[in-house]
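Model it.
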Amino acid sequence: MRRAFTTFLEALFRVLFDYDCVGEENVPATGPAVVAANHPSYLDPALLSLPLARPIRFMAWDALFRVPLLGAMMRAFGAFPVDIRRGRGREAYERAKALVTSGEVVGVFPEGHRSSTAWMETKLREGAARLAWETGAPLVPATIAGAYRAWPHFAALPQPARIRVRFHEPIDPRPYRGQPEEEALPALLAELHRRVDRSLLPGVKADLRMSVLYAAPAPAPRAHERAAAIGVAPARLGAGGGAWSVLPSTGYLAYLALDARTLRQSRLAKWIRNASPVVFLLAMSPVILRRLGAPPPTAEAALVAILAGATFPYLYARRTTGMTFLRGLLLALGLEAGAQCLWPAAAGAHAALALYAAAFAIGGRTVFWRYAAAVLLAYAAGVPLLMGWSVGFGLHALAGLVSAAVALGLPFRVRGARASFGASLARTGPIE
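Modeled.
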């Protein structure tokens, strides 16, 4: 039952958090062990437990076990209740020691609480080191990188982020057992801290860099954003829309200017801005196609859903990769509009845009590309068969494939991307 539950949860985490784990073989398959890790988020016990066949027994506040669903989940992960009232700490330690002595794996977070930063705090509690020192069980350091960005202590709910867990080679406590306690425990903790920090550093730098980028001023309207706005206006005017036809483009350009000059920047604000030209063009395309005499896309909700699903992995990708995909999607929308004028097909957009997303994922080896490409290719082939296939679909397929080739060949470049991280911390100008 536990393994079935953790397998399902691991699959879910791999999608929601781009979760991965290495070094599971460093946790002994049998016998006692003490796993000690940094503690950046609420997710940490699950993140450490998911890849292991045997449970890690974590201490947890006994009141949490009385919460119906949460208590069942904690028991499934092997947690055991601890009375956290003052004076009961020794009782909790003796329970953990008994579990280690009986051959169990016990998990301890030496910080004693969730970290207030992405770093492992320098002042650590000695419980993990003492357990290993007194029992002789190997002490397995573990690093959790990215979880602070996914669910920090001040956030009510998690958000997408790359999470990486690494189990390091065990620390053998036997050389320390001949030393006095006041020397052995600090030495064990120092070695534990060194191993965790060594692999935590790149992830913390990435988190800090992303925080700087999300808070940085927005750039002025970019070329592909202006192209989306300017391209819509003449298409609507040429179709006889009158002077009112320029209002959507004017409004969109006003939003871009407002975002660059006034709106407070955040992760959500950056996501909305980056996706805005695609959303704008998708919203305008049915009206434009009707006025140009071409049929609007059939089953628009399904098309929007498949595009949203295709875009989702780029929440985890490098910023330049995500922007390259979105900019190429704009080109695919434009070429597909032209294909509709030359050879109208109700399912043309479904084939062209799904093929674009699949080809880009395969060519760029993007996050989850194997799964995404398989679904998108099946969609691109299946929907035209359901709606009615014709020879003209080759033109629509070509629109998607050409767009992917252009996007991959001309990737998006971020101004100032070569600047050092120290310089980026001091940057006052806009960062795309």
